[in-house]
Hints:
The chain is α+β, with helices and mostly antiparallel strands. The chain has two domains: 2-97, Beta-Lactamase (2-Layer Sandwich), CATH 3.30.450.20; 115-221, Beta-Lactamase, CATH 3.30.450.20. 31% of the residues lie in helices and 35% in strands. A five-stranded antiparallel β-sheet has the order 2-1-5-4-3, sandwiched between helices. The chain is elongated, with a radius of gyration of 27 Å.
Amino acid sequence: MVCIASLEGTFRKVSPAFTETLGFSEKEFLAKPFADFVHPADRESTEDKMEPLARGLPIIRFPNRYICKDGSYKWLEWTARSFVDGGDIYAIAYDITKLKLAEERLKLDTNVFTHATEGVFITDALGAIIDVNDTFTATTGYSREESIGQNQSMLKSDRQVPEFYDDMWQVLLEKGFWSGELWNRRKSGEIYAQILNISSVEDVSGEISNYIAFFTNITLKK
């Protein structure tokens, strides 16, 4: 998406990609100040960028939201350069909406992971822990730093016979998930009962790359 704008804040020319992405015609873009197309929450930061442009300084990778004709918004990332003598701004914008949505989803997923009421831990394909959440540390007594790199077997108690784990892993490998009750051991040595749900995660080649486990402490119900 390419455009030419004025230092007074109006479009002078927009490329076809502008009209295709945002839905307005070129005539509509040229009829109003470009700030009118900017999300209200982003207008102040957008106007702030006019000052360095007026001094001939470039703007690099500046993000803001532009309204579409259907009322939705697109995230655009701008790189712009002004030519003060002619009063022109030449700018290129990239649609980064999908990237922003992915970032927001990642933040949400991270927040859910961190603050889930269930204990959560993630391992690699060999069972080495690569991340845990706050409930995991509160339940097991192991800090995140102590847990990462350790095999999940560090939580085993003596309540289950070896065949129990053999059967669990067999089901997990065949079906991709396992759910059941078992007893594990805290860092203090105290044992506790839990409902455990484990699912395998496959990479693009179909090979198991990780396991993610959710557990709920049910000791008080025993």
